[in-house]
Amino acid sequence: MATVFNDTIFAQTAFQQLVEMLTPIRAFATDISSDVNTQGSAVVVPLFGAATTTTFTQSSTVMEQTGGLLSAITVTLDKRKITPVSLTHQQLAESSNAGRWDKWAYQLGKSMGATVLADMWSLLTTANFGSAIITTASANYTKTQLIEARKQLRQAGARGEYSFIGNKDGDLGRLFGMNVYSSDIIPGNTASIVGFACGQEAIAFASRSLGQYLPAEDYIAIEEMVDDESGLSALYTRHYSRASGTYFANMHMLYGYSAAVTGALKLFTTPTT
Fold first, then answer.
1. How many CB atoms lie under 10 A from the CB of residue 128?
2. What is the pLDDT of residues 71-106, one digit of tens each?
3. If residue 43 lies in a helix (H) or strand (E), which one and from where to where?
4. Calpha distance 199→61 (Å, rounded)
5. In a designed cystine with 149, which of 25, 197, 219, 226 is the match (CB 3.0 to 4.6 A)?
6. 154/33 Cα distance (integer angstroms)
């Protein structure tokens, strides 16, 4: 099996799906690094505020004025997830096609990405971010609602890039001064949430690499993957158990998140019955 299976290609295929699933994280304040860390560690996530422009007046200190609001929130890396797949000798014996591990790559990345997002979306409550600014049937959400959401974010003093994330299909790009992301796993919960608009300081997210925490000789393969654009990282491992006659492949991810600035996120809901 080891001679026909390419772990690097498999891991990268799964990782690409994971990164795509986690695209909405770009809407928030992040501290994402491939540096190795351990579960329970604390990461200070910066919240970048507004800068102010003034008139240039010649003086000895004109180039040395203070400015640019910078605050921070501490996020604990307390979320460690693992997505496993396994294959036994019996399964291989019953079907030669059972050894097509590549068929699992998409599901491996999608499951991890969906789990991380669903975990973070648990923050989307009225207790964290206040009552919904707009409540209407999903079919009624149009550009009017996006414009109103942006208006309310500005009035609340939300900083950074504005984004809208909703239960929509496809990537809508940038509309009305907001980056628009889709996510089909936003929790309806008791508030019947269908989407939200936010500034970057609404939620803080951090992630780190787990590194190789078992002896290298215990593995058939180890892949530490990093996305050059976002900085997201994940660990892929594969090993064999003689005791059970089973191959095991796992994707691992370490991260944490926290609600940050209450007024920087505005919920959209549908009417409850």
1. 16
2. 778 899 999 999 998 888 787 777 666 556 677 888
3. strand 42-48
4. 33
5. 197
6. 30
Q: 78 with 40: CB under 8 angstroms?
A: yes
Three-class DSSP category at 97: helix
> Residue for token digits 């976002």?
230
pLDDT tens digits, one per residue of 248-265: 989 999 999 999 988 899
Cβ burial, residue 231 (10 Å; 0-12/13-18/19+): middle
Q: Is the dihedral of CA 31, 25, 158, 262 positive or negative?
A: negative
Helix axes 105-120, 7-21, angle to 10 degrees: 30
Q: Which residue type, as a one-letter code, is found at position 63?
A: M
User: Contact, 165 vs 239, CB < 8 A?
Assistant: no
User: Which band of pLDDT confidence, cut at 50, 70 and 90, is reported for residue 1?
Assistant: very low
The dihedrals phi and psi of 254, each to the nearest 5 degrees, come to: -120, 130
Instruction: List the one residue out of 232, 257, 199, 149 whose CA is nearest residue 48.
Output: 199
Quick count: other Cβ atoms within 10 Å of Cβ 122? 11
Q: What's the DSSP call for residue 39?
A: T
Q: CB neighbours (10 Å) of residue 155?
A: 9
pLDDT in tens, 142-180: 788 888 888 989 888 887 788 888 876 556 688 888 888
Per-residue tokens: 124: 């989307």
Distance CA 265, CA 84 (A): 34
- For residue 70, what are its two tokens? 């910078």
Q: Compute how many other C-beta atoms are within 10 angstroms of the C-beta atom of residue 176.
A: 15
